[in-house]
Amino acid sequence: MTGELAISGGTPIIPRPLPTYRDSSGRWLGEEEKQRLAQVIDSGCLSHLCGTQVAEFERRFAELIGCRLAVATNSGTSALHTAILYLNPEPGDEILVSPITDMGTVIPILSQLALPVFVDVDPVDQNMNPARIEEAISERTRALIVTHMHGSPADMDAVMDIARRHNLFVIEDCAQAQLATYKGRTVGTMGDLACFSFQQSKHLTTGDGGMVLANQDGLFGRNLRHCMDKGWPRERGGRDHLFLAPNYHMTELQAAVGLPQLPRLEAVIAARRESARNLDSQLQDVPAVHPLRIQPDRRETRFFYVLTLDLTQLSVDGAAVVAALVAEGLPCFLGYPGKVPLYKYPMIRDHQTFGSSGWPFTLPSARRRWNYTDALCPMAELACRESVVIWWSERLTADHMDQIAAAVRKVIGAYRR
Question: Is residue 10 part of a domain?
Answer without folding.
Answer: yes
